[in-house]
Amino acid sequence: MFELEIARRHITSDPKMVLFSVLAVALAIAVIVVMMGINEGYRSDLVVSLVENSPHLTISPKEDEDYITLYRSLSAILGSYPQVEAVSPRMLGKAGAKHRDKVRAASIIGALPEAEDPLLNVQQDMVSGRYLDLTFRKRGAVLGDKLAEELELSMGETFSLYRQNQSITLEVVGLIRTGTGADQSTVYLPLETAQELMDQQDVVSEVAARLNDIDAAPMIASDLNSRFSYRAESWQERNRDILQIFDTQDVVLIIFYSLIFVIALFGVANTMIMAVTRRTKEIGILMAIGACRQSIINIYLLESMILGPPAALLGSALAYAAAKLIEAYPISLPSEVYMVSHLTVEITSQSFILAVGFALVVNLLAGIYPALKASRLDPVEAIGE
What is the DSSP track for 239-299? Predict the structure, then answer.
């Protein structure tokens, strides 16, 4: 096939054109693959953060009530679902935390430690102390490590919680770090202590559950809502606004990828057009000795397509190296804004397959106009130039 041989000779005789074309597409591929990896990594980390640091399903009080009174019966009913592996009645509220002259807002979570620990794996996030110590430490508290830092509190020290006309003095028995913004305000208390602070007796704010299948949460919530007047809510519904951001993000990324695609396409096409201009006389000679216009088109399309695989390989290698670099030197993020503590890149095999497809499509489209331009040259005029 003489068209392939001529295309090969063109490539080997013009290394600068080859280098520019391959680099243009490779860099575009690297940027797109890394961006896809960052998007996928952030999405995965955010979902993990949502399902690991908050209940998969919650039951709130009836519409005209502030608290749940029959929470023990409700806990038993919720625990009867086969997908439910942990249930915890909780008393939630806001309070002021004070230590010496430092005052900060606190989010109170009052719970039975033996029920709350399997719900959110609290002990796993402890950096000091034991969460289960709250079982026998009625005046103990576990604080988010950032809140403790802002209050200048250490293990064993005491601080006060204020809420309306209620105040209690507590001892720090543990510090917790989830890597989210909650670390700046969370205070875990025994359930009875939280009820005392809220000036309530034997009631809770919600009943929360952890599932062995997080996708079953909407189904269980719907079933509970149809059976009771309490309001059951899945983690997907509770975080609907956050999850909808992904849809907007996808649209923005598609626009970004399209711009990269167009820039790479015009870069390669411009290089190919310049190559056609330099080879005008050669094209004329080929046509004069019998090469048909279709053969000229084939030559330049083959030339363009041959550059696709090297560009895909180089781009994939650059993307992989960038991902490993980010992995080796993590980029910290403010967890209170992004809900994750650092940037991760999750590159899948699908990303590399798309990279190869991107390279082939860009080079094919970029070669069409130069190929047509070359085939339309008049042999006599081309030889005369």
Answer: THHHHHHHHHHHHHHHHHHHHHHHHHHHHHHHHHHHHHHHTHHHHHHHHHTT--HHHHHHH
**Cα four-point dihedral sign 275, 278, 280, 281:** negative
pLDDT score of 266? 86
Beta bridge pairs of residue 59 = 207, 232
Is residue 71 packed enough to be buried (19+ CB in 10 Å), middle (13-18) or exposed (0-12)? buried
**b or e along 184-204 (b: 16 or more beta carbons within 10 Å of the residue's beta carbon)?**
bbbbbbbbebbbbbbebeebb
Strand pairing of 57-60 and 206-211? antiparallel
pLDDT averaged over consecutive 10-residue blocks of the chain (385 residues)?
Answer: 70 78 87 88 83 92 91 95 96 95 95 96 94 94 96 95 91 93 94 95 96 95 93 92 81 88 85 74 71 76 83 89 87 73 82 82 82 71 60
Answer for the pair 12, 4: CB distance below 8 angstroms, yes or no. Answer: no
- 3-class state of residue 352 by DSSP: helix
